[in-house]
Request: fold
Amino acid sequence: MTTAIHARNLTRHYGSTKAVDGIDLDIPAGRIVGLIGPNGAGKTTALKAVLGLTRYRGRLKVLGRRPDRDRRKLMEDVCFIADVAVLPRWARVHQIIALTERLHPRFSKERCLHYLQGTKIQQKSKIKALSKGMIVQLHLALVMAIDAKLLILDEPTLGLDILFRKRFYSNLLNEYFNEGRTIIITTHQVEEVEHILTDLVFIKNGRLVLNETMDAIQGRYCEVMARPGQIEQARALGPIHERVLFGRHIFLFDRAERASLAELGETQRPSVADLFVALMGEEYESTEGVA
Amino acid sequence: MNRRIFSTLWSLMQRELWESPGSFKWTPAGIIALTIFFVAVGLIFSLRVDNELVFTLDAIRQFSTVDMEQKRLFMSGALFAVSAMFFQIMLLVLLFYLSSCLYDERKDRSILFWKSLPVSDSMTVMSKLLTACLLAPLLYLAAVIITQLVLLATASVYGFMAGVNPLTTFWLPAQLPNLWTIMALGLVVQALWLLPVYAWLMFCSSWAPRVPILVAVIVPAIVAMLQHVWSLLLSFSTPDTNIGWIILKRLGSGMLPNNISWQVGGNGETEMADVEFSQDVFMSYSNSLEYLARPDMWLGLAVAAVLLAGAIWFRRRAADS
Reply:
């Protein structure tokens, strides 16, 4: 099994801010990893380190290369959308496609045009004349037309309508993804990606909070909607989170015995969003009033 | 491998043309139009004072009888003069282009897209430098050639009307191949001579937080001022050399590509009276090549190399914030 990303004690400080604070991470090839975290958690900085866009301390190998030394070589096998709307605004659509074709040995113009079908993007349009959503569509088409080993998408669907988002994720899974490829996605719209992920990584304050495969998460975490009389019993089992929905108390347990949970009430597997709130929540709950 | 480097460089340079059509396409095209417009206005005006073109055609007939040496001096001189405006405006355009070439991509964040392509930072910086040093001169030279051909064609029409042979009167004395080679050589030498200035602009462009051209002007200006203050305080005199003056002198002496042989302040003692007015003043390879033999030239290239390395260093870290 080849390793797409191998990081040990990956660290990046900006002044006294610890954007990434000693991350250990191994991502094997052929996974779709969701990198989830609140704003300012260090997601983007960690990805920048992987892409050779920032300096870092610690050990980091991406597809066997050091990104800070060998960005050019690395970019033949890695493609990314680091942020929305960074396509050069002066360029025309056909110019940007032609340039990518000439500068990237693994880019296929046909595939790019294929992904552009059904969008309203005209070859002659200037990028500054496109809407924000159309620029994202174009960027996604460019990136997916590259036969890369590692695809990194930082908030790829910001500003896109639901129809396109759905289509994009289904394209990503059905047409783009295969065992040789690794995809890393960060997004705030967790519900949309959760069914395509194979791995989940939570990051907070520059540190990893969770790093598991989806299968392991399903085995590990369990949610119980406790019957009204059994709330105290449930609390006694040490849930990691408790929330109230329509008057019903819902508890989230980490590595608890299924059989004893089933006695408390209806069990279900937690959604990524619920897990996120449970594991990262305190900050959010304390800032809720502000937001 | 080498082929790939070339094609990458070429694609990147074409990218520069796409990004700045105003600087490299419309400006030279505009100067062509303007030059031809003024010539046309001049000709129309001469039609009004010189009704039957009697004097004009007479002058042409006169001109056709002077000896070849005189014709050459006049023709190549006139065509050279035509080129001067193109190359001076080009220099101005290049100063702005170079000072923004590494700044704009940071400002609009498109650097994140460019960095997602397998192109190294040194390659990117080189492509922008080569655009300024080779591609832009080539395009402006093409514009000059077009203008010269149009002017010669116009002159030929008048020549026919005057009943003289345009070929021997205008075209041969113009020595076009010779003229164009000298201009091309002059442009390359000019680019080398100005390389430290170009590199300085790119260096500022690679890190300045805003308005890089202002930074590029203000930094040497402040250094020059401090140098003056220091010198005045220390020895109560103005300094012998001064960074601002050095830069201005270099810009001034590099202004005319084919380096009219009186060097601006070469040793500070050039006088107009010393300039012998023959076509050697501008039609000479040695004038251009002479620049290559100067220690100043090589010193400048060394400075440029350091500044370019700095620009590449900053470009590598540009997305890191």
Observations:
- The first helix of chain B runs from residue 2 to 19.
- Chain B is about 75% helix and 0% strand.
